[in-house]
Amino acid sequence: MSSGHKTMTVFLTLIGGLLIVIAGLCAEWPWWVWPTAFGGLLVMASLVLAGARRRRPLIPPQHTLEPDLPIPPVERWEKVVRNVALPSSSADYDFLVTALVRWVPVDVPHGAPEVSSAGLAVDAVLTRAREITVAQPPQRSSLVQHQLSGELATMRPDPTGRVLAMAENVQVTLSDADRERLDKLATVRKNEAVWEHERKWEQSKRAYLGEDVLTSTGSAVVWWLAKNNDRVDKAVADIGLLAQLTAVANDEPVPDRLHPYVAPPTEGESDQSAEAGSVSLADRLVDFMAHAGLDEDDPERLLFLRRVAEAARAARVPDADALERLADETDRPYREPSPPEEGDGPDGDGPGTPDSSL
Questions:
Q1: Under 8 Å CB-to-CB from 237, ≥6 apart: which residues?
Q2: Is the pLDDT of residue 145 over 50?
Q3: Residue 278 — pLDDT band, cuts 50, 70, 90?
Q4: How far does CA 255 lie from the centroid of its chain?
Q5: Which of 23, 44, 45, 43 has its CA nearest to residue 33?
Q6: Which of 81, 136, 270, 274 counts the highest number of beta carbons within 10 A?
Q7: Which candidate, 330, 358, 316, 334, places its Cα nearest to that of 203?
């Protein structure tokens, strides 16, 4: 106990004694009360001194004269890994992963060999990340980034049990060259799918014209009436032309019963050369399509021309070349003016221009 506490206790004891004397004189205590009062005062002073000895100070004396000690810095276990190539589900296309790896060493028994905590933590994180990337296509890099952020956000022990590792700030990208190749492949696949649908649509139209419309002159006339039901007189006038088209499409001559409907050649036409005759048939075909309602912007016009030209070539009709030229001229406005994609055309692997013989 310090000297200040002792002095204060003695002072309070003297004050208490004076108060007892004044109270005894004023009250005229009997003689036996005086010893009792002073005895009680002494007991109280002794108890106060004993309690002061047992009380410990809040700050130990050995530290009261020393300055504040600095707080030791917190030890951090972390390492940044950048652009680590992890495989995707497509061969030769890797994800580039960047992340901040954090770990905490685990207590091991005495005598265990020393290890590189950073190496164990990075290997454990990359192994967990690889299990996700190997099952995802390279086009889904943004989705893979979110999946890795969730999977690697939990501290887990490495296979050796020496560290607990996790990762933060995960970023997943592709190299510029791989991204460009994937964009080109996606464009080619989309163009090929469109071309395949167009080819099937064209085949369906050809089958419709060849197996339904031009199977006979009667079927051709019915088809013409279905498209021009208010021009019956024109249908009758064009029976001869329909008969000729049906005969060419089926590689057979015009039936004898339909010869009266076929207009005989005029005097000028009979003197024309074979080339002029072929052009005349092409002109007739153009007139027929105009009368049939197959306008120049009608997609069925090109299909109809292709079908007739192929049938004429198969039948070795002298004017088949003129019909093919007419079909090519009709097809020219529908072709895209942009250059073909890489790999397209007859020398590439892509679909190229659909062959008119399909």
A1: none
A2: yes
A3: very low
A4: 63
A5: 23
A6: 136
A7: 358
